[in-house]
Amino acid sequence: MAFQLNSVVPWGHNLEEYRTMFRLTGEDLSGRIAGFGDGPASFNCEATRLGASVVSFDPIYAFPANALHARIEETRQVVMEQMRANRENYVWTQIKDLDMLESVRMSAMETFLADYEAGRAENRYVPHTLPDRLPYGDGFFDLGLSSHFLLLYPSLGLSFHIEAITEMLRVCREVRIFPVVDLDANKTALAEDVMAYFRKTRTVKLIKTDYEFQKGDNLLLTIR
Ligand SMILES: C[S@@+](CC[C@H](N)C(=O)[O-])C[C@H]1O[C@@H](n2cnc3c(N)ncnc32)[C@H](O)[C@@H]1O
Fold it and tell me: I need a surface site. Which of 47, 72, 95, 218 has the fewest CB within 10 A?
């Protein structure tokens, strides 16, 4: 089935958030990084400006900037209403309130949009749908990141996750996934099954991070 832009709720994080959730060090940022399902995050733009080498993959990069902008505007109120209704499920320390949340997210997505056409021309935003084969050789990237996509939607199923992460591990020497819980911040059987599967052949770790926005979502999964 063709990928539908109207099935995506674009909601992007920034470099500082990626740094905290993935515990990114200066050394990590000096290697080749792949971002899977990076969507409208400003991580690629901000890290590139600092001299990092980042390629982001997402099905939404098949669409032009005006379509992404329209989709972001279409969903902005809906997401903010959901956040308002569920605000007790979040930790309001770094992000103090709903107004600040909207402004931090919109600022990240505006930074992404302003960089998008240039980044596409430089092959920094590559249309790609996991678990399809990636147009890169084995071990090309030092690090692969997945923020708020893998493990968040248990309905995608275990086989999808195994195929997607296997392909990510083909092109990346290490993969980091955040968060490890679902949209209700519940630990899932899916995450346990994914960890058990990769433990057979890889080094799998769960590491506590300083990033916690949804209550209880502060664990990072690393597979290498
Ligand atoms: C909630 S957004 C997260 C964006 C970004 N990683 C961040 O944290 O700011 C989830 C992203 O996953 C992308 N996505 C959905 N299905 C995908 C797939 N099969 N392969 C790769 N990305 C996918 C969506 O297009 C969307 O941009």
Answer: 95
